[in-house]
Description:
Blueprint: E1 4-9, H1 14-26, E2 32-37, H2 44-57, E3 61-64, H3 74-81, H4 93-107, E4 111-115, E5 134-137, H5 147-153, H6 159-166, H7 174-183, H8 192-202, H9 204-215, H10 221-224, H11 240-249, E6 261-265, E7 268-272, H12 287-296, H13 298-306, H14 320-323, H15 326-342, H16 351-358
Parallel strand pairs: 1-2, 1-4, 2-3, 4-5
Antiparallel strand pairs: 6-7
Helix pairs in contact: 1-2, 1-11, 6-7, 6-9, 7-8, 8-9, 12-13
Amino acid sequence: xxxxxxxxxxxxxxxxxxxxxxxxxxxxxxxxxxxxxxxxxxxxxxxxxxxxxxxxxxxxxxxxxxxxxxxxxxxxxxxxxxxxxxxxxxxxxxxxxxxxxxxxxxxxxxxxxxxxxxxxxxxxxxxxxxxxxxxxxxxxxxxxxxxxxxxxxxxxxxxxxxxxxxxxxxxxxxxxxxxxxxxxxxxxxxxxxxxxxxxxxxxxxxxxxxxxxxxxxxxxxxxxxxxxxxxxxxxxxxxxxxxxxxxxxxxxxxxxxxxxxxxxxxxxxxxxxxxxxxxxxxxxxxxxxxxxxxxxxxxxxxxxxxxxxxxxxxxxxxxxxxxxxxxxxxxxxxxxxxxxxxxxxxxxxxxxxxxxxxxxxxxxxxx
Length: 367
């Protein structure tokens, strides 16, 4: 068997940082390599978080940089290659060139288990590599497995194999109930997610052990790992508040750009913050986040404006120069304040609102 590498990407955001802490505390014997893809356009708070994490983990975080031999920052190097064409949700060349390609070069052809910090209260799958030597695991979720694994495990043609595997386990009274679920074939009214959720309701650990046993018959990296996989017995489901608690209690701290800042608009009190890590000019930002950047980091906002030329803008139908008009800022703040009033917040962190309203951007920026 080949040695399997276990890796965890630090994006500079809250979830990946908390995941690194979480795995270190629960599974201190796991040998995990940490890495971070540096675009050269991150906020200072991102670099500070990486530094804090290195102290806490007692281990260096490998910094990956695209275009290593270039005299320019990675983003600027590839922007020239693309003729000044700014990335967008429809053309995310920045993700491919600055995140995915450096990561896949970093792991090469090694068998790799990649840990991804998607929470149990998020409805998204996250990054799954198309390379067969890379397998994604999601420790914060009740379902730690990637969708491609579940699809193979629950395929109707694999039913007999999985039931045969079930018979080898001593799951007590749960075993018979799991058998009933497994015997029901997938169809239009009973899809993969329904079946998986029913199995998880009967037993998270039992389902994990059954899936792991199935994986041993495949070419996935975990099938080649000689060590026992401790996450099989983890039944936790971590949500947003858990993430902030982990960061605060360990002293690593929440990146400053998540902390809400109060503002007054036309006699109304509101507050704003940044909702994600990544480049300071990320095109996934809300309008209110661009206003936040303009008011809290005017130097970075000016740098973002410089990139808008030759008809290319960060936002559709509006340039940063147009956004900075006083009436436009007032309008954005007013609209945001109204949305905030309609949102009942239980957390002390503004990221709750931002995440709920906009969702998350490119998953690959957060691995």
